[in-house]
Write a structure and sequence with these properties.
With about 550 residues, the chain is of the alpha+beta class. The chain has 4 domains: about 1-155, no CATH class; about 155-315, no CATH class; about 330-455, no CATH class; about 460-550, Sandwich (Jelly Rolls). It is about 40% helix and about 20% strand. Strands 1, 2, 3, 4, 5, 6, 7, 8 and 9 form a 9-stranded mixed sheet that branches. Strands 10, 12, 13, 16 and 18 form a 5-stranded antiparallel sheet that branches. A 4-stranded antiparallel sheet has the order 11-17-14-15. Helix 8 links the parallel strand 6 (about 235-240) and strand 7.
Length: about 550
Amino acid sequence: MFTLPARRALWIILGLLLAWAAAFAAPETTDLAEPDAVIAQANTLGGQNEYVGAIQLLQNAIERYPSYAPLAIALANWQELRGLAELPNATGTLEERRALLRQNPGAYPDLLNEVFETYGRAVMCAPTDTTLRKAIADETREDFPLMLGQYGALALPGDPTPFTYLLSDNRLPLESRGEMQGLITMRSFPVPKRYSKDPKYGAHPDTIQDPRYLYWSFSRMILAYDYDPLAKIWRLRFRVIWQDTPGQEEARLLLARQSAQLLLRLARVGQAYSGYAPRFSPDGVVNVWLANDGEAGGESYQENIYLQQVGTARSSNEWVRELAHEYGHQSIPVVGGYTKPEWASNGYLGECLYLRWLSKNLLGDQHPWLRDGGLEAYARDRVTPLVKAFVANGPLAKNLSGTDATAMNGFVGMGLYLDMTRGGRALAQALNAMTSPNFAGPDGFLASLEEQDAYFQSVDRPIIGLRVAELPAEGPIWVYLRSGKWRGLVQRDVDNSTKAPLKCQLRFDGKELKVSEQGIFNTSELERGWHTMRITPLGNEGPAADVKLLRL
């Protein structure tokens, strides 16, 4: 979370820096023959492979002539060539290596980041110099860095503009809450050549029979970065790419911006609640293709999200749902093998999880797709019924071993239940522990979950905690326990931060247990397996918020 001075500094750099530099950069009164001579001398050294000497010479000169942009351009050139010359196990000429780096910026991200930092300083030197801008654009047109430092964003095309939003759910750890920063290029720019054809329908048209999917090509792009406050850098998360559509230029640009801003929120809440980031792309970047053709809806393919027939009208809720579904495919491990509605369940699970997490962090959010109350309706109509069904049927229900839509819904309900009671990271751990993509039944996810719970209830880790405030009041609480005797503590919320004992009646596996005024109860000897609790508050105590269990 940024302090006020840090936020102000960031906004000055990215929002007002160009105006500041234009207003306050003092014109050089010294004869510029001297810095030009330094550039010539540096070029001579660099041409003799004396890259360190050339860089040091230019850096010293920049301290004397900070507003002379050609010095920074020359420095960026020799920084990049030095980095290319020092690449481990690299072959080919420096120019061949440069082309390879621009086509695959993830191979050596620090190098391209350094170059963009220097280009950004050059823009500071001459913020109104269109020739300088064009020179930078020519040098960087193949691709853009995966990381941006303090100045690197100034060298991006398309007017990169920061925006903020809040993660306000007090269930999140303190370090995951507060003001978050995104950065989006607000104007589109021509796509680099490698993104003019998408990897599925543009690159391999002969494998597609439906004419709606043949020979796609794309022409425009924006970039979306997320700010990492610990490393103090911007990380590229999404490239949003679309097709020229006469008469729809502004509409497509608006759709791209809104999609990018929503996806940055999805990525951030996913990391905050579960630790998940995209699984397919080595560099963590997802490409989002806005296609005019195809079938209205979304699709995931490797590290790509497709929104098809984007000219077809959709409600705000539908845009949000589609993107959350496809980002679920990108980020959540597979529990699969289903025949309906699709093979893998991580799209529907992601749709429910991400929209549930978003709904808890809408304080002051100005995204137009999130302002109309649609997330609350989604939770009521989609999430709550799935959780109720799981609570009623339990983790050993036969339908979890099936492969139809009912079975998938059962698994999604179980995933939501685990998120509500144990948190997204516990769910993530169970998913990560699966050895192969399989259905949710006894030989798949359920076995992984039971093994994980048994591990966390070992002698070294005898405590299990459950959050129960959000669960349906009419159903039992399900918990997997190792054998032995257990002591429990039932608590309620006092002010969303302080807990107090709950006076209640409690039935454990259908048998009533005595609960003390301090909210404590003890079980008899239990067998290893799934058990149920039903909690009925006494008086005006309100519902239970948490249950903690200690193995004795």
